[in-house]
Amino acid sequence: MAGERMDREMRQQPEILSRLLARRGEIIGSVRGVLPGDLAGVVLIARGSSDHAAILGRYLIEAVARRPVGLAAPSVLTLYGSEVDYRGYLVVAVSQSGRTPEIVDVLGRARARGARTVAITNEADSPLAEGADVTVHLDAGTEEAVPATKTFTAQVAAFALLAGAFGSVPWDEDAWERVPASVSSVLEDPEPAGLVAEALREAEGLIAVGRGYLFAIALEAALKLKEVTGILAEGYSAADLLHGPVAVVEQGFPVLTFVAPGPARASMEELRAVLDRRGARVFLVGEDPTADLPVPGGIPEPLATIPVAVRAQQLAYSLGLRKGLDPDVPEGLTKVTFTR
Amino acid sequence: MAGERMDREMRQQPEILSRLLARRGEIIGSVRGVLPGDLAGVVLIARGSSDHAAILGRYLIEAVARRPVGLAAPSVLTLYGSEVDYRGYLVVAVSQSGRTPEIVDVLGRARARGARTVAITNEADSPLAEGADVTVHLDAGTEEAVPATKTFTAQVAAFALLAGAFGSVPWDEDAWERVPASVSSVLEDPEPAGLVAEALREAEGLIAVGRGYLFAIALEAALKLKEVTGILAEGYSAADLLHGPVAVVEQGFPVLTFVAPGPARASMEELRAVLDRRGARVFLVGEDPTADLPVPGGIPEPLATIPVAVRAQQLAYSLGLRKGLDPDVPEGLTKVTFTR
Q1: Most buried by CB count within 10 Å: which residue of A53, A146, B258, B282?
Q2: How close A290 gets to chain B, by Cα (Å)?
Q3: For A111-173, what is the HEC assignment?
Q4: What ipTM score was computed for the predicted complex, to two decimals?
Q5: Could you tell me the pLDDT band of residue A171, with boundaries at 50, 70 and 90?
Q6: Catalytic: A335?
């Protein structure tokens, strides 16, 4: 049946998240064990969905580590052969399969040049895991659908746990316990996604936008929509959207906005005013009770990214089915991309 | 006349680049004077077009500095108030006007927490310049058209010069002298852009893709096309495009590919094969003699980004005029974006 695997994997998310949480102490301890004494910075390596988890990961880690965190540009090392000195750095590579050659290569180069290294992967015996000082095993089970769902939320959870290795996290630890239930309640309520999918059925393009922690979720939502439905969806931070690209938003153009209570809200409200003036069709995703795609409230913004991401998965899935596509195998895509 | 200012500013580029080159020694010397003794890393701060110059800047600097270079996520500091320790870092902020409050704010926070700071700006007496240890003044003259053209190429040149402060650059210094003439010859030959614009006249969406140094130019080309023509253009690295988003490329979908001779070429050729299989309409930008938008050959890849960027400006300009729009003032955009 079309979309059967993606649907099954989405439903596995609460249990996978609970299992990761149960290993919280072990994960934090193992990463803490390899942290450089005088931390110069942190570099994250990823592509695709994992890259979006890493973009969120850099916010989560920088807030706790209090040293700059950045994302690697793999080609500086792999294409141009620059010999970058990574002494003092923790380098974290993220790959579902642990087999994307470029990611394995970049982590190896960083380690050879002084970095302490962590692999976040779903395959504990992959080349990536073998090449790292420490592995955070996602234990999410085989991913059979091409669009990553359970891997993405598990990666986000792994980054949030890993942040705890650097010091005390800026969210209530008890909040963690509410995340799996929040994801379950989203999964048990597919109607809102169906309604938004119906409204987007004829859309050729779409913009997904967030700010702060939810920026990465906007990017991931756009990727899921592209992969599963073929729609031209582009993700933006609210700040970047206003620096020019908002020019594409005409009367009736659909915009998915990701909004959390908290410091990013004011910026999203300013954006909303601009979008309304341009006549955009705005859909709201978040804990607001009037949201088109609501999520349960009461979870701190960094962790609320997880149920919000599941809403975006639901939307992509639902729109894909409505378009007569098979969400499990988007046309022409394969599971591991062999980038050099 | 529609597009008069954008056209004038594009034509000023060779002279602006020559003036910057003439100040090469002064620029390198002033930045060298503030480099931390034991460099931990480099962080770049920017938004919009300047962000694309910074993405290229990170490649240019990392290759020479041999310490990790990353891009700031301003909201970690400005929204969430994280107190990141920047000791040992050089932090470079890029803003045409030097007045975007968020950029000024982030540079100030980094400086207060130990960073050595550089401003790259067109306004030598702006708040950004006043808040930095050293200013690289672009001296590009007032920018009156909303889409940044001369500022972008001047910023790229500034980054390439600034890289020289860290050590010896991986390109022949004489090559610099050929850049302004190369830009002139592109400007004197607008026909190819007119032909591609004609072919794109009815396109609703487009993908721009590069790898390595030209990745940033693909991003900038997509932004210029969005701003000036309202087309849904998205920029990608070839590696990321294959990780899912290629799903949107159907029969006849237009893709602009940015290709340079050099190590990124093989990856672009693999991508080309995938695009051809999917029936994309591929347009080639680069020094290849068969290119749809050719640039003069013989300039090393990092510096060839400048004439290639001018080809993309020409295309956006030409397509905007053909669509009956005024490239100088895209609908609803203003010059300085007051992001908080």
Answers
A1: B258
A2: 24
A3: HHCCCEEEEEECCCCCHHHHCCCEEEECCCCCCCCCCCCHHHHHHHHHHHHHHCCCCCCCCCC
A4: 0.94
A5: confident
A6: yes
Q: What are phi and psi of A320, to 5 degrees?
A: -60, -50
Tokens of B239: 């590696």
B38 touches chain A (CB under 8 A): no
Provide the 10 A C-beta neighbour count for residue A198.
12
What crossing angle do the helices spanning B24-32 and B13-22 adopt, rounded to 10°? 60
Q: Which residues of A touch B68 (CB under 8 A)?
A: 41, 43, 70, 72, 84, 86, 89
Cα B84 to Cα B302: distance, rounded to the nearest angstrom: 32
* CB contact B170 to A (< 8 Å): yes
Q: What is the pLDDT of residue A97?
A: 95
pTM across the whole model: 0.95
Tokens of A218: 């906007």
Taking 50 as the threshold, does the pLDDT of residue A224 lie above it? yes
Per-residue pLDDT, B339: 43
- Residue A339: the pLDDT is 44
Mean pLDDT value of segment B100-123: 97
Rounded to whole angstroms, what are the CA distances from B168 to A174, B90, B156?
52, 18, 18
Residue A88 at interface with chain B, using a CB cutoff of 8 Å: yes
Closest CA to A157 of A198, A192, A120: A120
Q: Could you say which of A41, A67, A247 has the minimum Cβ distance to residue B333? A: A247
Closest-approach residue (CA) in chain B for A72? B70
Residue B334's pLDDT band (cuts 50, 70, 90): low
pLDDT, residue A118, reads 98
